[in-house]
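TL;DR need structure tokens for one chain.
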Amino acid sequence: MDTTILAAALAVFTGAGAGIGIGLATGKACDSIARQPEASGKIMSAMILGAALAEATAIYGFVVALVILFLK
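>> reply
TL;DR here they are.
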């Protein structure tokens, strides 16, 4: 098996980590809003910022995988 294909496959798995992280953050945000509905604006803005950073990590992994595959 070519090592570049394996490296690209591992780089794509950052999307799984990002999905798990976003799911956990969303669950905790829903719990927090249920406990303190008056703070929902601050909680949602912090959650969206965290989700954007996690999603950026997944996009970086995808880009790295494409670079590995096409520039080998």
